[in-house]
Amino acid sequence: MRLKEFFYLLGLKPRTRVYGHSIQIIDLPKDGKIEFARWKNPRGADLDLAQGEVDDLRTFLSDGDVAIDVGAQVGDSTVPIALACGPQGLVLAFEPNPYTSRSSAPMPRSILPD
Fold it and tell me: What is the pTM of this model?
């Protein structure tokens, strides 16, 4: 048993921290500007998305496809999948961690249907 687990058994747990989000804009050559709600966790990083990643996904995902992202966390995989599925497609992103999924609610506006 680790020392911190001993304190957990005594009911001494640290408070849960909740972080907000900021909007990150990514400019892709073929897909244009993408707005991404980046979770402001201090250990998190900006979404580093390249056009090649989206193009690779398009080899097996087409416009109008439905994809499921289980364990979506902050959406760093969901965004390129959604771009590959196109405006007629659908991505169902599920994150079971309630603290992470709070920041996953805002979707990139440029891929939502009008």
Answer: 0.76
